[in-house]
Amino acid sequence: MNTGLTPLLRLVDVDAWYGHFQALRGIDLTVHDGETVAVIGANGAGKTTLLRSVMGTVTLSPQSRVELAGVELGSRRPHERVREGVTLVPEGRKLFPSLTVRENLEIAATRARGRWDLDSVYDLFPNLPLLARRAAGSLSGGEQQAVAIGRGLVANPRVLMLDEVSLGLAPVVVERLYGALAEIASSGMTMLVVEQDVGQALRIAKTVLCLRAGATVLAAPAAEVTAAAVTAAYFGASA
Amino acid sequence: MTWVNAVVQGLLLGGVYALYACGLSLVFGVLRIVNLAHGDLTVLAAFLALVVGQALGVHPLLTLLVVVPALAAAGYALQHAVLFPALRGGELAPLLVTFGLSVVLQNLLLEAFSADTRSLPAGTLGTAGLALTDLLSVGWLAVLTLGVAVAVLVGLQLLISRTAIGRAMRATSDDPETAQLMGLDDRKVYAVATAIAFATIAVAGVFSGMRGTFTPTLGPQLLIFAFEAVIIGGLGSLWGTLVGGLVLGVAQTVGAQIQPSYGVLAGHLVFLAVLAARPGGILRRAERR
Ligand SMILES: Nc1ncnc2c1ncn2[C@@H]1O[C@H](COP(=O)(O)OP(=O)(O)O)[C@@H](O)[C@H]1O
Ligand SMILES: [Mg+2]
What we know:
Largest interface: A-B, 24 and 19 residues
Low-confidence stretches of chain A: none
Number of helices of chain A: 9
Largest sheet of chain A: 6 strands, mixed
Structural class of chain B: mainly alpha
Mean pLDDT of chain B: 92
Order of helices and strands of chain B: HHHHHEEHHHHHHH
Helix content of chain A: 25-40%
Strand content of chain B: under 5%
Bound molecules: adenosine-5'-diphosphate, magnesium ion
Number of helices of chain B: 12
Mean pLDDT of chain A: 91
Shape of chain A: globular
Structural class of chain A: alpha/beta
Number of domains of chain B: 1
Largest sheet of chain B: 2 strands, antiparallel
Order of helices and strands of chain A: EEEHEEEHEHHHHEHEHEEH
Low-confidence stretches of chain B: none
Strand content of chain A: 25-35%
Number of strands of chain B: 2
Oligomer: heterodimer
Shape of chain B: globular
Helix content of chain B: over 70%
């Protein structure tokens, strides 16, 4: 899978724990500069935990390594990792409900100007300017997800991680959001996308990683992944 | 006229209570930490103003230049080094820490200053007044205190609603875990919020020290008044805290007008009545959880 690209995010032998429960087992993953990797798997497979291991909000075994552009994130606290250049659009959007849409975006915006700012997010999601002064808690699910994606973008991360963007949203809304994600990807953003909706995931990803019970059961270029292979990996049937 | 006088004096007294309460309101409303040492810190600020005023030979108002930064620094350090780490031990842990701090402060102040009753020498500011009518006059210091209380609360409200640090405080209060994911250092946000709250405690200590008397063990009494003002007005609402302070002040002076010994009791009764009728307080903010 060596394409001559630079590895940007690298996970090596990652074991993650919630107390005595091991949620990830020996995960290896490399995301190259500018590529999109999709992580799929059934509920409870460990997808969210994989993203948390990058943000530093879950306990890892000592040998586990998480590197961003060659820098070991190790003991850094979550907000320091954001400064290093990883941002998570969390599962369930997690907007600040009492803040306005605009404030939700401003809070994550970096002072150092990058490709993404409030204006370019408003261009990407043209309905957001109209909602800018509304409390984020009062928006519909799809609108909230757009704000959550925008909030991730304005941090101008080197790697943008998204957790189940489609969760609980109508297909037409999901379609529109993935259209925006495709635009973001084509702007050169490196992305790690967790998704249950395999069809959408395959649409924007170059590489697919399938997890089952905390372990990798399939890692392949998206173009070579068949529906049968995904189903087999998902449910553990012998392919 | 005596009733009008009671209400006017009550509003002025309410200024003191509002001032006591704003730091508590901020720590309670934003950080969701109940600071049981709040009253003792107010007393500490008054003693600090006494010492600084005597040492430098300056008016208590000038000691604010020392007392405010000193308390703010203490607040930052306390939150950063003690309260924030204690939060990991559950919500009860910071409560116990502030209770311990309350006991320690009272004993240290007793040790250092004895149980004597003190007050800050306000000079002519403390005695001069304005006669509104023959029967109704207001003291300048009381008016100034109310003005300062309003200014502090307006300032806090603007800080919270308009500035980046205020936005960070609201976000962290909404959802601390997500705030971290958005690059906010929650420990620093908490420490800055506490520093701001302690700065208002310093102002409250100096003004109440000039308006009345204080002893090392007055803290718990002040805590109760501050608490009542916050609850009457509504948790998490700074305007509510102003209203709560004024309602408490008027209840006390009007109660005392009925029967001198009823003053404080009337305040407690109004507090209980508000709690029973509107548990969220008079001005509860609807969108807050
Ligand atoms: N905070 C937690 N404490 C204990 N166990 C957890 C916690 N979060 C997740 N788990 C467990 O870890 C496993 C992986 O969870 P998760 O990463 O959220 O899965 P996914 O995102 O793929 O649905 C599941 O078995 C889940 O029950
Ligand atoms: Mg998940």
